[in-house]
Amino acid sequence: MTPRAAWLASAIAVALVVAPRPRVAVADDDKPIQQKMKFVEKGDQLVVSTVLTQLFDSAAYEALGSGFESTVLIRLWLYKKGEAEPIAFQALQRRVIYDMWDEVYEIQLEGGGKARTKKVKYRAEALKLLTSLDRVPIAHVDDVPYEAQHVLVIVAELNPVSEETLAEVRRWLTEGNGGGLDRGGGLFGSVVSVFVNPKIAEADRVLRLRSQRFYRPTP
User: Fold this and answer.
1) Is residue 98, in this structure, part of any structural domain at all?
2) How far is the C-alpha of 185 from the C-alpha of 127, rounded, in Å?
3) What is the rounded distance in angstroms from the CA atom of residue 95 to the CA atom of residue 92?
């Protein structure tokens, strides 16, 4: 048996005997965590910057170097105050696997109608790429009226297992209207389905965030 085949056999054996990690929601009782986020206009788009590092605990962070793929699914809904239906929706998918032979983390980033791959040397760099939202488009500015208050809600899942959700997100990433900016379709529902009556977590970890209220000032 070659060294590589022996390593693969050992890894599979470990995977079979290690108990699955508990699936938990990061926010107690599935309540959203309020988090300060930065909103700016970039051309004809409203973009957001924030971080989702709470999605990873120490065990999930260590698992990034296991050689098995980790997936982060991020969904973002923009709501106008007082309305239950979102005015815009965005979906992102990020996957990472550690190449033990080349000793690099390979990260695939999908969203906004684009896909790219990055390779980094250190686990902390991989975590940053998985959990940082840096000027991510969330809506066309024409859909966000001046002076009206809005809130952004984010649901991030680590290693989701819902095939229905994953299939819909894959379709969205491929065919999403306007590069992914839209109301999100029937599956993604309203603010009621996101926060008020969430389903039992179908992922290793689930993080639910709510931004501060914000508005576009009249020029």
Assistant:
1) no
2) 30
3) 10
